[in-house]
């Protein structure tokens, strides 16, 4: 009777007083079951989402769904709240939430710990989730920021804290502004060598500036390697070949156009000289003496102004790349992959990319509108993915999302006063090869085009770090969490009495919530069989066995 | 949709009955195969060391004749190695004093001089042999996405520099040449348990390890791969949980991502216990003194603060442990493998900045780890515990690309293309340079460089390099070659048709001793 309950909740939450709504207390007679099916469908709209649709929305837009557990009114971020206010309104609420406490680079607490605590407990779930996605596109790794003895703080930590705050701040902002803030950010400045990138040597002779930032900005932050159609598919030439999105000459041109920036300081250094003391608390400083003021040919035949100054050239360069037709599909598709599904249809990419191009008011690059378009799209919504896409829909939960979803479903109390539960969560994620915020390279934890093993033509980005070692770590994380005192010792205390006790009740609960109604009969049977085995000889072991198996089941691991 | 052989195998590996079924399956995996143990009937392993980020190999092999060295220093006044940072080497058939290696690679230099190591010069991803004019003309004969880390790592790993335009099937395009070699070498391995993965990876590039049919064992860099249990040894409850978990993996709700996840899970569950047991048992077969000596080789001699973050030597130590497990006969509780491929990697070679400070440290680490591995293998070759299956190993390097000869404004160098690779082992025809060392004259014709910054157009292709190693492992027919290295036949044919130098017209490079 799961469907009936779902329906009742939806209707009660949204339209209890409407004449056509079924009363929550009435069971329809058997001959109206089909009518009920249609009524349920009709009720499951963005404004009046059903339970499964709401759970799916929270999987896509937060670090894991939660249940209200009798708290009224249902708190923001719970399944019941989404059902009550609908998806457009839930998004509006999330967009309005400002970033919670900023990341603190001078606190003793590890940044990974700070990240996981915010992910597990924060109210601004969508902002953090989008910022996390952006952090995997505009990558700066804490491991790539060396410590200098010249600052009174830990360079890598202060740098990354500032950078993570930047991404939170711009998560629903303007992409052009985000791009400029990233370009001038000191953490990025160090990570990809934008800082002290001079166009002259110490004798004042022109030299080739470092190409690192220019190249990765084009390849990873804006364009990708191939020219794209608006729907994200490659734009082929007359011979059917892919075309490069930019040339080597254009990489050099951008390197020249972006030359001359250095650490914030009291004054610029002489031509060819550098500022050697980093400042990770302020944006990079423009020093025209180290800038190549000559005219550069950018993308699409656009030139920078001859004799222009360093600021003018940066503006021209970033405007040029921002207006490239590759940017909307390239960024939109990756955001879809992070939030919803690894293999969106071209139509889905096109619908979102069109919003990136124009949010309806004529503005390009409005990330808030883009995120709304992604999460309200018909391909993302419904109690289940569209039938025709179901066999290839979804994405493997990344290690960080696997950890946070487990924690948020189990809803433990966290002792942050005397323990460091966030660090424990971070270390578990690290064991599965996602050590936030320490991506192994500018290509992040895994590449957006990693092939899905065994399936020709589909990608599975998160599968890029799924192998025999990390999949074992997935099981071992869960095992340690459930069966040892590790979680408790780190201040994470789960009340297993919150879960139903009878075997059948628990399996039904797991199917209804954790798998949002997609519990396959075969899996249900196997769970019940394992729990009924005499070797699972205590009530708590039966329960934990069911949790272990469900969390590791293919149906849970793939967020659909 | 018809069920292909591969899909069948994949499904077969997802059920609990896999082990039982696999033993009864015909070995059609190697249909028309001709891989042989003729080269050596014992155990052979190839070890790929991936230098992630693009190693500046202009600094691992430096010309010392007056003109070239002056050109070298002129292009890199800061990052170039000074005379007192270099030691001469004496490659066969070259004038004395013509090349040097950095002092940071002194152990490797000793192996070179003793004939156990060689350089393969200016090798890189290519589709067809290229002149400068061909490069400038562009088109599909030029590798795709040159100078991009991810694409060039993939090009080295897959030995397919044109994944976009190549006509090979898409299932080949997502694999690597280590994995495809394993697809064809599989027939040589009659291991216990059956179908133990040929490729074991502790790091490096995952793509290198993936075959179409054969999937790698990926292991944490510290060597561990084991599922936690409540009890030790596993209790009844643990056994129930493990069996139920294997059962649950078969429930995939008609979704291909679920299938892919379950496939990886099943490989891990099936082979992790066998691997752990064989590693311990095989290691114990070696005399205590041998084990102690090998462990001693891997203890860094530099102060701990200099080596705390080293990761290569620990990975290569794990390779030693796994190759001992693999080579040890089944009768002595080993896996009894004949052919294995290992992958390790370490990073931070992307020296856009401060290369003069950072690269020497990386090379010191490389030097130490390679030397420890080479000495270990030399010792293992003589161990009687292996019976007739004693291991032989060849280690080889790959890297995203070489770097610009001309340094940038940041005491660093930028992304380039062809570079010099290292091969090391007792079966290497060492003390030699293979291929053609590029002209470093940036004021000259630049025929061998894409531009004025010194980015060498390779004169050997990754495929020639890889096929030399795969042949040593036992592949030999044209069908095997064309399967593992789809572009190689076309490359050689084009080199012949257009009269390229002799080295471009051969399938292999001569750096392995004849069997």
UniProtKB/TrEMBL annotation, chain A:
Region described as Disordered: 20-54
Source taxon at top rank: Bacteria
Pfam families assigned: DUF1800
Presence of keyword Signal: yes
InterPro entries: DUF1800
Signal peptide interval: 1-19
UniProt keywords, alphabetically: Signal
Name of the protein in its database record: DUF1800 family protein
Organism field: Corallococcus interemptor
Taxonomic lineage of the native organism: Bacteria, Pseudomonadati, Myxococcota, Myxococcia, Myxococcales
From TrEMBL, chain B:
InterPro entries according to UniProt: DUF1501, TAT_signal
Keywords: Signal
Keyword Signal: yes
Cleaved signal peptide residues: 1-34
Protein name: DUF1501 domain-containing protein
Organism of origin: Corallococcus interemptor
């Amino acid at each position: 009777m799961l469907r009936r309950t779902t329906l009742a909740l939806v209707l009660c939450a949204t339209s209890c007083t409407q004449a056509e709504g079924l009363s929550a207390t009435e069971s329809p007679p058997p001959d109206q079951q089909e009518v009920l099916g249609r009524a349920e469908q009709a009720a499951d709209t963005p404004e009046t989402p059903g339970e499964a649709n709401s759970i799916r929305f929270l999987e896509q837009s937060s670090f894991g769904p939660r249940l209200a557990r009798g708290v009224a009114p249902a708190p923001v971020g719970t399944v019941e709240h989404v059902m009550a206010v609908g998806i457009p309104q839930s998004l509006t609420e999330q967009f309005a939430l400002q970033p919670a406490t900023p990341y603190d680079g001078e606190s003793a607490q590890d940044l990974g710990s700070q990240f996981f605590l915010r992910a597990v407990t924060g109210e601004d779930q969508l902002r953090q989730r989008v910022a996390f996605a952006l952090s995997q596109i505009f990558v700066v790794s804490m491991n790539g920021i060396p410590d200098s003895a010249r600052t009174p703080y830990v360079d890598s930590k202060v740098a990354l804290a500032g950078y993570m705050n930047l991404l939170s701040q711009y998560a629903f902002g303007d992409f052009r502004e985000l791009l400029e803030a990233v370009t001038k950010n000191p953490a990025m400045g160090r990570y990809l060598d934008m800082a002290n990138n001079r166009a002259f040597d110490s004798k004042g002779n022109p030299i080739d500036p470092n190409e690192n930032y220019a190249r990765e900005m084009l390849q990873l932050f804006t364009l990708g390697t191939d020219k794209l159609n608006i729907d994200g598919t490659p734009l082929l030439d007359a011979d059917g070949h892919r075309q490069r999105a930019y040339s080597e000459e254009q990489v050099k041109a951008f390197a020249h156009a972006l030359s001359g920036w250095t650490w914030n300081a009291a004054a610029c250094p002489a031509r060819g000289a550098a500022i050697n003391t980093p400042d990770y608390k302020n944006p990079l400083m423009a020093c025209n003496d180290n800038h190549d003021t000559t005219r550069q040919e950018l993308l699409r035949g656009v030139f920078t102004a001859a004799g222009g100054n360093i600021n003018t050239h940066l503006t021209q360069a970033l405007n040029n790349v921002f207006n490239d037709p590759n940017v909307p599909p390239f960024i939109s598709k990756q955001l879809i992959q992070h939030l919803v599904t690894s293999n969106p249809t071209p139509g889905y990419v096109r619908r979102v990319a069109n919003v990136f191009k124009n949010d309806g008011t004529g503005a390009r690059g409005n990330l808030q509108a883009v995120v709304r378009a992604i999460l309200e799209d018909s391909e993302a919504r419904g109690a289940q993915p569209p039938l025709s896409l179901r066999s290839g829909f979804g994405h493997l939960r990344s290690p960080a999302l696997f950890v946070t979803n487990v924690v948020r479903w189990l809803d433990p109390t966290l002792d942050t006063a005397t323990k460091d539960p966030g660090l424990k969560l971070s270390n578990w994620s690290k064991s599965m090869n996602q050590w936030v915020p320490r991506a192994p390279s500018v290509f992040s934890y895994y590449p957006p085009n990693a092939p899905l093993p065994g399936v020709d033509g589909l990608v599975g980005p998160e599968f890029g770090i799924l192998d025999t070692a990390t999949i074992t770590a997935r099981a071992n994380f869960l095992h340690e969490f459930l069966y040892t005192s590790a979680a408790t010792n780190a201040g994470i205390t789960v009340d297993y009495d919150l879960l139903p006790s009878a075997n059948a009740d628990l399996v039904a609960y797991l199917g209804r919530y954790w798998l949002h109604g997609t519990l396959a009969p075969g899996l249900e049977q196997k769970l019940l069989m394992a729990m009924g085995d005499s070797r699972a000889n205590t009530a708590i072991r039966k329960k934990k066995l069911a949790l272990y198996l469900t969390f590791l089941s293919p149906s849970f691991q793939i967020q659909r | 949709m018809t069920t292909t052989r591969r899909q069948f195998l994949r499904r077969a590996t997802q059920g609990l009955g896999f082990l039982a079924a696999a033993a009864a399956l015909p070995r059609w995996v190697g249909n028309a195969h001709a891989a042989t143990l003729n080269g050596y009937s014992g155990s052979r392993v190839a070890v790929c060391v991936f230098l992630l980020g693009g190693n500046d190999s202009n600094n691992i092999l430096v010309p010392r004749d007056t003109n070239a060295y002056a050109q070298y220093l002129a292009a890199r006044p800061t990052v170039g190695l000074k005379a007192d940072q270099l030691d001469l080497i004496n490659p066969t058939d070259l004038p004395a004093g013509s090349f040097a290696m950095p002092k940071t690679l002194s152990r490797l230099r000793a192996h070179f001089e003793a004939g156990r190591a060689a350089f393969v010069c200016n090798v890189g991803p290519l589709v067809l042999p290229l002149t400068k004019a061909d490069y400038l003309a562009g088109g599909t004969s030029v590798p795709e996405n040159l100078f991009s880390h991810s694409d060039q790592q993939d090009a080295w790993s897959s030995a397919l520099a044109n994944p976009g335009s190549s006509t090979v099937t898409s299932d080949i395009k997502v694999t690597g040449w280590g994995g495809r070699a394993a697809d064809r070498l599989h027939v040589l391995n009659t291991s216990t348990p059956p179908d133990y993965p040929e490729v074991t990876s502790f790091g490096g590039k995952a793509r290198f390890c993936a075959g179409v049919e054969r999937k790698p064992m990926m292991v944490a860099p510290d060597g561990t791969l084991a599922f936690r249990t409540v009890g030790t040894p596993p209790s009844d409850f643990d056994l129930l949980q493990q069996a139920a978990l294997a059962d649950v993996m078969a429930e995939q709700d008609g979704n291909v991502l679920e299938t892919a996840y379950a496939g990886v899970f099943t490989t891990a569950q099936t082979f992790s216990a066998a691997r752990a047991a064989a590693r311990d048992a095989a290691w114990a077969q070696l005399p205590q003194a041998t084990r102690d000596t090998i462990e001693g080789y891997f203890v860094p001699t530099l102060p701990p603060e200099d080596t705390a973050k080293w990761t290569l030597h620990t990975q290569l130590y794990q390779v030693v442990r796994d190759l001992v497990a693999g080579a040890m006969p089944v009768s002595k509780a080993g896996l009894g493998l004949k052919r294995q491929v290992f992958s390790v990697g370490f990073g931070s070679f992307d020296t856009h900045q401060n290369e003069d400070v950072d690269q020497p440290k990386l090379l010191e680490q490389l030097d130490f780890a390679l030397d420890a591995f080479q000495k270990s293998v030399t010792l293992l070759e003589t161990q009687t515990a292996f019976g007739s299956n004693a291991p032989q190993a060849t280690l080889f390097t790959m890297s995203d690309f070489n770097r610009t000869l001309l340094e940038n404004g940041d005491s660093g160098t930028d992304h380039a293309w062809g570079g010099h690779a290292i091969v090391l082992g007792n079966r290497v025809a060492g003390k030699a340079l293979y291929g053609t060392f590029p002209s470093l004259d940036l004021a000259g014709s630049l025929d061998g460089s894409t531009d004025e910054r010194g980015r060498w157009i390779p004169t050997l292709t990754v495929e020639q390099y890889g096929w030399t190693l795969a042949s040593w492992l036992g592949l030999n027919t044209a069908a095997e070659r064309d399967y593992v290295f789809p572009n190689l036949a076309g490359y050689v044919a084009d080199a012949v048709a257009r009269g390229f130098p002799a080295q471009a017209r051969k399938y292999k490079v001569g750096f392995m001793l004849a069997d």
